[in-house]
Write a structure and sequence with these properties.
single chain; 267 residues; alpha+beta; Glutaredoxin; 2 domains; two-stranded antiparallel ribbon; elongated; disulfide oxidoreductase activity; membrane
Length: 267
């Protein structure tokens, strides 16, 4: 299963879809309870959602604060996957408990929707976490820009980070300099950049124009990698351990802290 869902040209991470479903279900239940009990917990529930999102982001920022200090503007990049859902949920319930201590009439209208939303979020996270982690690197072969063959599944004793990208993809373009630097900084990880659907001449000219120097840039005009990994959009980054088993994946733009969070899965 991919970690994103394609709706026409729009590609949404499953975590975002789970959040939308949880909010929709909680809102529906809150509306029903408000009609029956004549107590509207809607404003409180929306504040709880804002608290959850704020602290989920702050929790991740604190965990990788050294990297965000070096690149402070990346704090504003809310699409980088940098969230700590467990911290957000804890903060949300603490806030709700505090606000409900003197409002007994709102306890049921607020607590029931919050419990339903929390259950759906946790179930969604478990669904993603319990996906088969033993998916191996597929035995695909590509041609590097220098003409050499690249055997994706060739054992070399290193973890492998695979990035599927294209020059027309805005998020791919934005994250590429960071990934190029990470390749230089992390020689213990084999970085493989597999361009999807474009020819070698175009990719080489684009990289030269961007002044990007990277190893293991491969051409996949038929998009075999996208089919093998069942990925819905670009950029897609997949991390395999030294034995060739999938340990993390991300569809969407990565920041340096988000990449670091992926690499910690290797420990």
């Amino acid at each position: 299963m991919s970690d994103a869902v394609a709706i026409g040209p729009l590609v949404l991470p499953w975590t975002f879809v789970h959040l939308c479903i949880a909010v929709a279900m909680s809102s529906a239940v809150a509306t029903l309870l408000a009609r029956r009990r004549r107590q509207d917990a809607g404003p409180l529930l929306w504040r709880c959602l804002l608290v959850a999102l704020l602290f989920a982001r702050l929790g991740f920022l604190y965990q990788y604060k050294e990297l965000y200090v070096e690149h402070p503007l990346s704090i504003l990049n809310l699409r980088d996957g940098g969230w700590s859902p467990e911290i957000g949920i804890i903060a949300m319930w603490m806030y709700a408990t505090f606000r409900l201590r003197n409002a007994p009439g709102l306890r049921v209208p607020a607590s029931v929707p919050l419990a339903i939303g929390t259950t759906l979020i946790v179930a969604g996270q478990l669904q993603l976490a319990l996906q088969p982690a033993s998916v191996p690197l597929p035995p695909l072969q590509f041609t590097r820009l220098n003409g050499d063959r690249l055997d994706l599944a060739a054992p070399d004793g290193k973890p492998v980070l695979v990035n599927l990208w294209a020059t027309w993809c805005g998020p791919c373009v934005r994250e590429m300099p960071m990934l190029a630097q990470a390749q230089r900084d992390r020689p213990e990880v084999r970085f493989v950049f597999i361009n999807q659907g474009e020819d070698a001449d175009h990719v080489a000219k684009w990289l030269s124009a961007q002044r990007l120097m990277m190893d293991n840039v491969a051409i996949d005009e038929r998009r075999q990698a996208s089919a093998a990994f069942k990925q819905a959009g670009y950029p897609t980054t997949l991390l395999f351990d030294a034995s060739g088993h999938l340990v993390a994946k991300r569809t969407g733009e990565l920041s340096e802290p988000a990449l670091q969070a992926m690499l910690t899965r290797l420990r």
